[in-house]
């Protein structure tokens, strides 16, 4: 038992108090600025039971460090002292060691490993099929659901046996199980990334240190081939883990930076699934002389979608702990997923030779729970056997009650309704109707329609509604499919029968019936259990309607079950019948009223489909519908009820109103589920529930292979029960598009639509090119959205509106677009996109040149690409302002403050040379770097790089390379003052290869990178006080601006102009301060007379690279040539010149002449004549050459003249 002074112990009185302290400590906000790294609380429950709680920010300690801390705490408690930790073992030494490894390039191989292993772009993992949201949301906090399971020791032992059999560890088996489960849950995913943790204690000096040493290692897994075995999956998992552990010294944050991994506030970078594994060989049983037990970890929240922790105990149960992101998944599904994981693990340990493809995705427990939940109580009918018999009984019991009313003034009691039914039924039998005869009802909505429907049932015939709210062609198709023998008409439809294709069908005209027929004249009810009662055709919004075959059993079962959800014996129901008779809800409304002794009000034709008129009937016609003054029931079905509508019901403040939401395909006889919504409940869920299956029904959610799925997992619905029906004419195609119907105030629609079109988070090619506001969404006769009609809506744009919408700048720019586009784009608006109306990157270059020609300021090409709409591009041009006239004397002037009073000291060396290299990540710089580090005369190469893309560097076994992040255009080269001074004392020669080679852009866009950087390097030399030779990569094309000629004053010929200006500035530096400058000029071929074999040698190499890159350059409108020479030859010449340059030699021009010329036309002819290559995707030609260099193109491009059309567009 611990002995502490009373003041250091908090006394608690129950285990719940301990839990409260633990939660409070876990949820406490850690303030790093306070310096309080760890908080420890000792709780006393009794003299024999204490709880020791320790809480800390994860930046202070990782899991291993806590073990060290816990051990040290015990030592301090027992011995009252701890030996000091050496400085070299402190965490800050570890941090310095990591930084040094990075700066010395010791992690370059690890970075290269990940560049080879990982893709260039990362996309977040798909959401699992039971996600509670369709897309990720911004994660404002990390909050997770947690589930835990214990694996018995016998299964853990089997895991270890399987691991040994595959020369792996238990960790590899647990990880492989997670991989198998993820691929099973995500059938459309071909690769997943899983993160693991490494203690990162490779250096024994830090084994007893405290700090956050832990490093994260991302693993990439690809889906295995069909038929893969468990053994191969374990082994590939093992290999991936070992591969990552070999490079565990690379910090995760450095990896993210080097791979340029994008960050998001919605998900974690690279991997979204994390697994932590901990093996406990033997749990501690004592601490500080006390018995120890009940260890519990409460880890900090993370942003991972899925986090699995495995704590394997050799002697007891292995603990599995799974956490899912609360924003994405429910607590129930956290348990479901953990049980699924255990199921996969149990499958794997049964044998390594088992196929991965058939591993269980879901646990048998969850599948059975889903099946059980889908089973409703058995249905025991208590009504009469058919709807017709049930209504007969209601007529007998309610002779004087109102049964039918309509908007035409007709009011029938139950007795009068029964008489009318009998009259029509007798007429049908007299017309030859027998059991199963199909009879159509072709009338205006009225009380007579309802009587005709019930008369058909009583005669044993089959009811087919022919509602005029449907189109004539649709009615024709229904008549053709159902083939009625008799059609019942009224005075409004007698002359329309031929229009619906029923010219030779027997007509039964209600007006001709003998009203004196008494009720008992046809007292026999011919309706039979199980016989066909209704053929109801669906809305047909997806094509031709399909017919649903409903039996009397279907209808009777449905009506009885449905009425139990709302009907009360002490209520006088009044039901509104406003739905089209071809919609199954018309049957629901009819049966709800007449099978329960209620009154059915049939809305007349003039008011159907008009919500305002129907509402007036409910509110104003109180004499006709007395009971509707107190609205009690509202039913929703057919389409999903919106959350907004449910809330609007609450705004009515009708405390007695019950709102029912229902679900069920038409094949279930109207509905299979219904629920009384708690629409006023503040916690009303969204989306709204549709209820549990009705008695007698069973429902199961299955996957695409008809296998059951757990509760909450998306899939297809399978329904069974007494109300399921068969369909005829099914299998019609689905709609081809989705309709988006925003609910916007009228006055805001235009502005919102405009903003939506511009900011919709979709790629440009997916954004709608037009939003059209409709007065109303077209609907079918059943008031469902008519998607077929929407496709046929004509799209028109008023020419006057287009022309008025363009500003002066947009109008002028649109005329230039028309000059460069290959086809007339038609009418343009400020939102027209250059790339969506026929433009491409080459044509954008042509547009840029046209802007220059017309004295417009042409922005960078990348700026134009990013502002591709007419309005955005015009705005960019306006912001650029007028064209600036360049004064070349000012641009190349050597500043007075750099002119020295004392000459520079000689800096020449022949051994132990320190080289300063710029552009080391470029094509030429990369080859130069490789050559320099192999030279024994070179002591060190200092590489100044804007971004630390170390994948572009080379192997450096002797650690000669020193990489410094820098910006040559900034003061002091963008590095610290101390680093600047250090380099100034060490560097012996400078090779300046860095340049912006965007050959399309103007001088202003390239000046900073190409001229200002040269000026900053001259300042660097001056600050050193030594005559450090400067080797400058120029252009052979500068010779055209000799003998007093200067580049264009408008900034044209941008790349060559910057090289000419740099040379002019360097000449003044030579004359003013004696700076030794060597200008390297790659120049074109002196003679273009080369053999066909020489010509094709270059083309053949380019062809091989086309195959390697799996893309080809775009030759559209591009011609000209490139002059080349072997890159090794250029590198050797520059290398030797740099190491043999001596101060005081003054300006020296070194030309590197190209040997061969490759014509674009020859290259294009070969590519386009090859069927396989011509089908490859194309990219702009200069971009392709950039990729070719990275792919190993062995030639250096010394010169190029590329033309577009007949104009020179790119010179090197």
Description:
By secondary structure, the chain is of the alpha/beta class. It folds into 7 domains: 6-78; 92-119 and 144-282 and 300-361, Chloramphenicol Acetyltransferase (2-Layer Sandwich); 373-379 and 643-729, Luciferase, domain 3 (Roll), CATH 2.30.38; 381-431 and 442-609, Rossmann fold (3-Layer(aba) Sandwich); 736-792, no CATH class; 808-879, Non-ribosomal Peptide Synthetase Peptidyl Carrier Protein, Chain A (Orthogonal Bundle); 888-1083, Rossmann fold, CATH 3.40.50. The chain has 35 helices and 42 strands. Helix content is 34%, strand content 18%.
Number of domains: 7
**Helix content bin:** 25-40%
Supply the CATH architecture of the largest domain. Answer: 2-Layer Sandwich
CATH hierarchy class name of the largest domain: Alpha Beta
Strand content: 15-25%
Could you describe the largest sheet, including whether it forms a barrel?
Answer: 7 strands, parallel
Strand order of the largest sheet: 31-30-29-32-34-35-38
CATH homologous superfamily assignment of the largest domain: Nonribosomal peptide synthetase, condensation domain
According to CATH, what is the topology of the largest domain? Chloramphenicol Acetyltransferase
Helical stretch tally: 35
Sequence stretches where pLDDT stays below 50 over 5 or more residues? 1-7, 622-629, 730-742, 797-804
The average pLDDT is: 83
What distance lies between the first and last C-alpha atoms, to the nearest angstrom?
83 Å
Total beta strand runs: 42
């Amino acid at each position: 038992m611990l002995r502490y002074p009373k003041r250091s112990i908090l006394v608690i009185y129950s285990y719940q108090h301990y839990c409260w302290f633990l939660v409070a400590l876990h949820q406490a906000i850690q303030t790093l600025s306070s310096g309080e790294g760890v908080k420890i609380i000792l709780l006393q429950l009794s003299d024999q039971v204490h709880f020791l709680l320790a809480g800390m920010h994860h930046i202070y300690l990782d899991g291993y460090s806590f073990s060290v801390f816990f051990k040290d705490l015990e030592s301090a408690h027992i011995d009252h002292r701890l030996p000091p930790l050496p400085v070299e073992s402190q965490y800050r030494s570890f941090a310095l060691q990591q930084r040094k490894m990075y700066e010395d390039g010791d992690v370059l191989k690890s970075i290269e490993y990940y560049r080879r292993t990982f893709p260039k772009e990362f996309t977040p993992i798909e959401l699992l099929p039971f996600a509670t949201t369709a897309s990720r949301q911004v994660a404002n906090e990390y909050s997770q659901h947690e589930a835990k399971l214990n694996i018995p020791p016998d299964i853990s032992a089997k895991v270890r046996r399987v691991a040994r059999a595959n020369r792996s560890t238990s960790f590899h088996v647990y990880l492989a199980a997670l991989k198998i489960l993820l691929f099973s849950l995500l059938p459309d995913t071909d690769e997943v990334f899983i993160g693991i943790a490494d203690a990162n204690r490779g250096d024994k000096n830090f084994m007893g240190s405290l700090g956050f040493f832990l490093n994260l290692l991302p693993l990439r897994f690809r889906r295995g081939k069909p038929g893969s075995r468990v053994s191969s999956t374990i082994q590939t998992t093992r290999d991936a883990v070992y591969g990552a552990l070999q490079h565990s010294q690379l910090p995760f944050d450095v990896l993210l930076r080097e791979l340029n991994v994008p960050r998001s506030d919605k998900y974690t970078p690279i991997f979204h699934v994390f697994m932590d594994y901990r093996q406990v060989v033997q749990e501690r049983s004592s601490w500080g002389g006390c018995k120890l037990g009940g260890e519990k970890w409460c880890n900090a929240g993370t942003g991972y979608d899925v986090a699995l922790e495995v704590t394997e105990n050799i002697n007891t149960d292995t603990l599995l702990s799974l956490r899912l992101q609360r924003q994405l998944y429910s607590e129930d599904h956290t348990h479901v997923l953990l049980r699924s994981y255990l199921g996969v693990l149990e499958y794997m340990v049964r044998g390594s030779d088992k196929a991965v493809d058939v591993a269980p995705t879901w646990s048998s427990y969850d599948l059975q729970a889903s099946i059980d939940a889908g089973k409703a109580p058995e249905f025991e009918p208590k009504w009469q056997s058919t709807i017709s018999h049930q209504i007969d009984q209601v007529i007998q019991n309610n002779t004087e009650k109102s049964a039918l009313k309509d908007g035409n003034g007709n009011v029938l009691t139950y007795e009068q309704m029964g008489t009318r039914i009998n009259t029509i039924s007798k007429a049908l039998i007299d017309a030859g109707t027998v059991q199963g005869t199909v009879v159509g009802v072709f009338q205006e909505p009225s009380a007579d329609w309802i009587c005709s429907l019930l008369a058909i049932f009583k005669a044993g015939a089959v009811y087919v509604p022919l509602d005029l709210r449907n189109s004539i062609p649709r009615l024709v198709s229904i008549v053709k499919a159902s083939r009625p023998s008799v059609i019942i008409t009224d005075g409004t439809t007698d002359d329309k029968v031929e229009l619906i294709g029923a010219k030779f069908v027997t007509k039964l005209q209600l007006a001709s019936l003998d009203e004196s027929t008494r009720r008992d004249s046809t007292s026999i009810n011919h309706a039979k259990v199980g016989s066909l009662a209704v053929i109801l055709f669906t809305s047909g919004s997806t094509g031709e309607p399909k017919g649903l075959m409903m039996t009397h059993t279907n209808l009777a079962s449905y009506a009885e079950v449905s009425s139990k959800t709302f009907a009360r014996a002490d209520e006088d129901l009044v039901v509104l019948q406003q739905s089209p008779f071809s919609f199954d809800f018309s049957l629901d409304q009819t049966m709800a009223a007449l099978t329960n002794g209620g009154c059915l009000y049939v809305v007349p034709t003039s008011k159907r489909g008009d919500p305002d008129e129907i509402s007036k009937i409910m509110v104003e016609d109180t004499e006709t519908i007395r009971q509707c003054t107190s609205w009690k029931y509202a039913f929703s079905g057919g389409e999903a009820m919106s959350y907004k509508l449910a809330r609007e019901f609450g705004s009515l403040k009708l405390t007695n109103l019950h709102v029912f939401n229902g679900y069920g395909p038409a094949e279930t006889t109207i509905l299979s589920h219904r629920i009384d919504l708690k629409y006023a409940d503040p916690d009303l869920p969204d989306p709204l529930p549709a209820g549990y299956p009705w008695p007698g029904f069973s429902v199961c959610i299955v996957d695409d292979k008809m296998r059951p799925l757990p509760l909450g997992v998306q899939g297809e619905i399978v329904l069974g029960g007494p109300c399921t029906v068969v369909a005829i004419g099914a299998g019609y195609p689905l709609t081809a598009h989705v309709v988006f119907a925003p609910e916007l105030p009228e006055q805001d629609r235009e502005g919102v639509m405009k903003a939506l079109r511009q900011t919709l988070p979709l790629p440009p090619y997916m954004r709608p090119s037009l939003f059209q506001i409709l007065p109303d969404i077209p609907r079918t006769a059943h008031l469902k959205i008519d998607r077929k009609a929407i496709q046929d809506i004509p799209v028109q744009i008023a020419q006057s509106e287009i022309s008025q919408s363009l500003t002066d700048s947009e109008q002028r720019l649109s005329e230039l677009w028309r000059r460069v586009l290959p086809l007339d784009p038609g009418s343009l608006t400020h939102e027209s996109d250059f790339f969506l109306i026929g433009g491409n990157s080459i044509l954008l270059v042509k547009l840029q040149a046209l802007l220059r020609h017309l004295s417009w300021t042409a922005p960078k090409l990348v700026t134009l690409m990013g502002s591709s709409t007419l309005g955005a591009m015009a705005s960019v041009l306006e912001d650029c302002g007028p064209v600036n006239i360049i004064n070349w004397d000012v641009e190349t002037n050597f500043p007075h403050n750099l002119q020295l009073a004392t000459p520079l000291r000689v800096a020449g060396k022949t051994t132990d040379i320190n080289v300063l290299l710029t552009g080391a990540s470029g094509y030429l710089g990369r080859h130069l770097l490789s050559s320099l580090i192999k030279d024994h005369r070179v002591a060190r190469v200092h590489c100044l790089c804007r971004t630390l893309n170390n994948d572009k560097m080379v192997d450096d076994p002797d650690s000669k390379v020193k990489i410094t992040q820098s910006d040559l255009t900034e003061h002091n080269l963008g590095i610290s003052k101390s680093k600047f001074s250090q380099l100034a004392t060490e560097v012996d020669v400078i090779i300046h290869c860095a340049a912006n080679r965007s050959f399309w852009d103007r001088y202003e866009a390239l000046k900073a990178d190409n001229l200002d950087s040269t000026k900053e390097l001259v300042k660097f030399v001056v600050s050193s006080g030594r005559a450090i030779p400067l080797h400058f990569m120029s252009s052979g094309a500068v010779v055209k601006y000799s003998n007093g000629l200067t580049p264009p004053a408008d900034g044209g010929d941008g790349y060559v102009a910057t090289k000419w200006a740099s040379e002019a500035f360097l000449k003044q530096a030579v004359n003013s301060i004696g700076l030794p400058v060597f200008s390297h000029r790659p120049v074109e071929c002196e003679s273009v007379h080369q053999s066909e074999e020489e010509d094709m040698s270059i083309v053949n190499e380019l062809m091989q690279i086309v195959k390697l890159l799996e893309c080809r350059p775009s030759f559209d409108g591009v011609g000209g040539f490139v002059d080349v020479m072997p890159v090794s030859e250029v590198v050797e010449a520059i290398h030797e010149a740099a190491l043999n340059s001596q101060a005081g030699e003054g300006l020296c021009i070194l030309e590197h002449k190209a040997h061969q010329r490759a014509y674009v036309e020859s290259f294009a002819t070969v590519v386009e004549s090859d069927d396989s290559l011509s089908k490859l995707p194309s990219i702009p030609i200069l971009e392709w050459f950039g990729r070719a260099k990275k792919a190993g193109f062995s030639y250096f491009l010394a010169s190029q003249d590329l033309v577009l059309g007949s104009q020179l567009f790119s010179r090197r």
